[in-house]
Amino acid sequence: MPYELFIGLRYTRAKRRNHFISFISLISMAGIALGVAALIVVLSVMNGFQKELRARILGVASHVQVSGFDNQLADWQRVAAAALAVPGVVAAAPYVNAQGLLANEGNVRGAIVRGIAPELEDRVADIGRHMRTGSLERLVAGEFGIVLGADLARALRAAPGDRVTLVAPQGLVTPAGLVPRLKQFRVVGIFEVGMFEYDSGLALVALADAQKLFQLGDAVSGVRLKLEDLFQSRQVARALYEKLGGDVAVSDWTRSHANFFRAVEIEKRVMFIILTLIVAVAAFNIVSTLVMVVTDKQADIAILRTLGATPASIMGIFLVQGALIGVIGTLLGVAGGVVLALNIDVVVPFLERLLNVQFLSKDVYYISELPSDLQRGDVLTIGGVALVLAFLAGLYPSWRAARVRPAEALRYE
Asked: How many whole angstroms separate alpha carbon 277 and alpha carbon 132?
């Protein structure tokens, strides 16, 4: 073992005459551990929120969407077949997308009316898993059934079995003027995906009924695609556009919800910077600790210098002390943060019962439980940043120790 490492470890383990130095060292370790654990837990929770929101959004929206200009796509079977031939595409389903007014017992709400093929829709979306009542299979062509979002049904005061009136923007020209198209639909199901945008403004009908109501004939609005890897959506969209030509519009989920996911990512980075300051404050404690140690050990430094120790060796001794504080604090923080992040679903309910509060009320938040997604990259980055800060904090005190002059240090000994 190099003597620099041996002496540095011995200084760290030895009982000091000044117990205040030991106390500051423990505070520094605890500060680094707390900062590292907080960073791991917060980033894991933010990753969990991002993953949960992405799953809920893409449970209704599509990974990639191929639509026709003027909201009409005539030969959708050809487009679907061509899309399924692209590597990475696992399912395709046609859809009709239009706006309409829904009315029931004097309550009127605007909504996006989406015509779907129930047997194909389950392959590209997860709405069927979020049905509170009824099912998508009850949307039978010609029976004019409708499935409403939970908030939309609540606003209309509509329950399964009720009939609601759908007003289409395409009107009929009569001698009396333009008359809007009206059609009664029977509520056959209610879904709740946990996103206000969809729960309060989306209604599903059978594809053939939507084509008839909005006068599309055999055309549809477009084709929705599901990918094997949703993060390959941009590459797949580009390949589809090159394959299908310029007579269709191709978009992916990263574009349709770009602002939302960009805001979440920016928030995550800002939180990382803010919480890193906790680790930086703890690292500054290492500076004060080592400065006091250097002052306390000036006689020892002078004796080592007279025995032939070089300034670099003296510097290495105190760097070992600073690095040891950083390593122990980082390891404790990583262990505590990983354990807490993996058990956040147990810890948070326990704290809610203990304090008799609810952090995420179901009446306010659609995600009432704290999700956690622990990622190895985040843990390695946080641990690396903490170690680097601890090492940098030990440079100045170690440099001061290397500049101690033996004659002046031993003058009054």
From this structure: 45
